Amino acid sequence: MICWSCQKEGGAGPFCVGCQAVLPPDGSDRFAVLGLPRKFGVDLAAAEAAYKDLSRKLHPDRFAKADPQARKASLARTVELNDAWRTIKDPARRAVYLLELAGFGLAGDDRKAGAASSTATRKVEAPPALLMEILELREELGEAHEAGDAAKVAAMADKMRARAAASMAEIGEALDAGRFERAAQALVALRYFQRFLDEVAAHDGRAAAGAIHG
Q1: Average pLDDT, the chain
Q2: Angle between helices 150-176 and 128-147 (to 10 degrees)
Q3: Which region among 154-158, 173-177, 204-208 has the lowest average model confidence (pLDDT)?
C-alpha cells in the first residue's frame, strides 16, 4: 500500500514503515490485525496485550489535530481493531470466523464475514437426529419444570453443559486440524446446546422472580 503521507510503499501493518503515518485498513483478516496466526488455539493474553497497545497508538483522540487523512485512517483502523478483538476473544465467534475464511457457514446464519465475504460458502445444517433429540429434551425439560422437579432440571442442565464443553473442545481441535466440515457440525450442535441452557436459565429467572413477588 502506498502511504498517503510520504507517497512511498508503506508496508504491512497500521503504520507506514517509512514515515510512521497511520495507514488505512488494507483488508487484513482479523487475526492478522492483532498479529496472530490464523488458528483457533490463540494466545489470548498476547492478543489482548496487542489489542490494548494498538488501541492506545491508534486512538482517534491522538489524532484530533492531525491531517484529515490521518484522522480518517485512525478511525478506520480503530473500528477494524475493535472488530478483530470482539471476534478473537470469543471462542464461538472465532470459530465462526475461521469457518467463514475456509468457505463454510451455518445454515440460517446471515452474518457476513469481512475478508471471507467474497468466498463461496458451504452451508452446514443441523442433522435431523440432533433436531429430534433436542426437541425431546426440551419436552422433558418442560415436564420437569411443570412438575417442579428442580433436581432433574439441574441434572439435565449439568449434562448439557458437559456436552457444550465437549463440543467446544472438538471445534477447536477440528479447526486447527483443518477439518472444517466437522468443526461446523460441532458448532451447529453447540448452538442447540446453548439454546437449551438459555431456556433453563430463563425458567430459573422466572421462578426466582415469582418467588420474590409471591
Answers
A1: 89
A2: 150
A3: 204-208
Specify whether the CB–CB gap between 72 and 63 falls below 8 A: no
Question: How far apart, in Å, are the Cα atoms of 182 and each of 98, 104, 119?
Answer: 13, 11, 19
Grid cell of 111 as nine digits = 452474518
| Cell numbers 445444517: residue | 125
**Structural domains of the chain ordered from first start:** 30-89 (1.10.287.110), 124-213 (1.20.1280.20)
- Burial of 138 from C-beta contacts in 10 A (0-12 / 13-18 / 19+): middle
DSSP string, 110-127: ----GGGTTSPPEEEPPP
Closest CA to 78 of 58, 61, 63, 62: 58
pLDDT in tens, 42-62: 999 999 999 999 999 999 899
